[in-house]
Amino acid sequence: MEKIQLLEEQVVSRLKDMHMKVSFAESCTGGLLSGRLLNVPGSSEVFDEGYVTYANEAKHRLLEVSNEALRSYGAVSRQVAEQMARGAAKRSGAQAAVGVTGIAGPDGGTVEKPVGLVYIGCFVNSKVVVTENHFCGSREEVRIQAVEAALKLLLNCLS
With helix as H, strand as E and coil as C, how does 85-138 read? Predict the structure, then answer.
């Protein structure tokens, strides 16, 4: 009977096959995405570094997210997710990177940006795809759903 591969195992396997490195820039997921990938034996072959940039100043300093984007669009935006992914790739030298920014709750949401809104940017070989996601549930559930969506997007971008 063939073993069913977990999502993170598929990502590591695909990255190995493509001889690529990945880095992550996380805000609302706070390191969960990196941790999930690092659960896979052999993940050290494809993952060198990640960034948890919760504060705007950290996004700017570590990932070169522009202050203009942070002011004009807010930390939870398509533009910032894209810049986080690009910044993580540039800073780490990885061929692939994922940026995650959102509102996990239970507070912090607005009518325009409700709790559960998460933007995920995926950078692969200089191209970035950004998705807008709306998750439901507790803070922990939103964060877990964001990690799952980020892994799926990365796998899709590597296809």
Answer: HHHHHHHHCCCEEEEEEECCCCCCCCCCCCCCEEEEEEEECCEEEEEEEECCCC
